Inverse folding.
């Protein structure tokens, strides 16, 4: 009889979860959320220039008694950068329950010149909020700010760690890197990053969506050394610029890896820089080549592929291939895939169902970001769930306002499902 008796504890817990999710999502006010987003967008914050927005996020949390702290970020060797992340924590009632990291970045790319209006206007029209960084990713930042605030009064067993970081758009992701360097992520069991998802997914999907992985990235830094000669007698020299051009074309045809979830890798020459003398065969040239990789394409594989390509070309120039200089050898964007059976995925799926009444689409991110550091370097189950928009990094960037509110509620509901 015992085996067939109903489990009243489980049933009561389910009811409690439903009530707790409804309570926490109702605390998220749409108008206040979009007002917050507009305030964030109006703050100019290109990477390495985040002081103003850092103080705004800190003060907003502090005004709600959420005990934020500034987390120093320093990289003295390459960028000479000094800044601060903003961290805050909600402690649950069970010391053995998991800790969930909620992450967003505060910076944007540099303001582009092609805007035909103020790029920091925060203008709202037809359900879209416009501004540089509105979608990437101040919409997601506003989402976790209001979700974290709503969770402060929830009865959670597990812990929530809020992190708003600097320099995601910069070359090294210094804010997220500092979290790992200082052991901030050591006690975390999973991570949610509210980057815009569908617009940068490998395949066409729509929100609500959960992105369960991302490709990684390496940057080839190739030095080509030829031999100078008078430009009227090019046959007496070795043209480094011409050989660099042949290399760039060959890199475009490089065979890359493929993955069942992440799709194919990719290669894209980004920059050729050399020559410049008025009438001399160029003696040297530098070539930068982006390579996005999938699981299995390690640093050793990436290096070996480039060296084989160079050998096969048989160029007259001497060619040396390196990977871009980094603050430390492990500061790389490695690819990762999160198992769909992870508790975090189930909790966010429950959150999507509770908020939207639908199942989430499942996708994978095409490029790289802080989530690679959490999913690959820190080894955390990491899910991207963020509001969609268009024109990311360009003029006319916007985010859908209803999706900002929806994502905030999904994240809050997912936290309750996982930690409550």
């Amino acid at each position: 009889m015992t085996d067939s008796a109903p489990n009243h504890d489980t049933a009561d817990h389910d009811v409690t979860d439903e009530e707790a999710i409804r309570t926490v999502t109702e605390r998220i006010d749409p108008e206040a959320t979009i007002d917050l987003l507009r305030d964030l967008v109006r703050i100019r914050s290109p990477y390495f220039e985040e002081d103003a927005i850092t103080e705004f996020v800190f003060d907003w949390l502090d005004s709600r008694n959420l005990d934020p702290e500034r987390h120093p970020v320093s990289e003295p060797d390459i960028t000479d950068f000094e800044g601060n992340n903003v961290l805050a924590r909600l402690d649950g009632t069970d010391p053995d329950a998991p800790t969930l990291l909620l992450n967003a970045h505060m910076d944007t790319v540099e303001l582009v010149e092609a805007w035909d209006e103020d790029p920091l206007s925060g203008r709202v029209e037809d359900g879209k909020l416009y501004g540089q960084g509105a979608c990437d990713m101040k919409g997601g930042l506003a989402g976790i700010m209001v979700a974290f605030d709503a969770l402060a009064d929830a009865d959670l067993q597990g812990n929530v760690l809020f992190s708003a970081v600097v320099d995601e758009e910069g070359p090294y992701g210094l804010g997220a890197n500092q979290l790992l360097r200082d052991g901030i992520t050591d006690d975390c069991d999973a991570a949610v990053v509210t980057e815009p998802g569908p617009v940068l997914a490998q395949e066409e999907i729509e929100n609500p969506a959960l992105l369960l992985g991302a490709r990684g990235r390496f940057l080839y830094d190739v030095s080509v050394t030829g031999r100078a000669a008078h430009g009227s007698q090019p046959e007496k020299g070795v043209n480094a610029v011409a050989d660099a051009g042949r290399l760039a074309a060959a890199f475009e045809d490089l065979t890359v890896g493929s993955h069942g979830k992440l799709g194919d890798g990719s290669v894209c020459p980004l920059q050729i820089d050399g020559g410049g003398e008025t009438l001399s065969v160029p003696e040297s040239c530098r070539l930068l080549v982006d390579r996005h990789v999938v699981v299995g394409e390690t640093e050793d594989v990436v290096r070996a592929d480039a060296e084989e390509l160079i050998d096969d070309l048989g160029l007259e120039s001497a060619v040396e291939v390196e990977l871009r200089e980094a603050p430390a050898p492990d500061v790389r964007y490695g690819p990762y895939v999160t198992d769909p059976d992870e508790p975090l995925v189930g909790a966010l799926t429950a959150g999507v169902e509770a908020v939207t009444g639908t199942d989430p689409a499942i996708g994978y991110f095409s490029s790289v970001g802080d989530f690679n550091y959490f999913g690959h370097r820190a080894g955390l189950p990491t899910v991207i769930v963020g509001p969609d928009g268009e024109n990311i990094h360009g003029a006319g960037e916007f985010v859908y306002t209803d999706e900002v509110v929806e994502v905030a509620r999904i994240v809050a509901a997912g936290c309750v499902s996982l930690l409550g």
Q: What stands out?
A: Residues 8-215+335-419 form a domain with the Aminopeptidase fold (CATH 3.40.630.10). The CA atoms of residues 67 and 88 lie 6 Å apart.
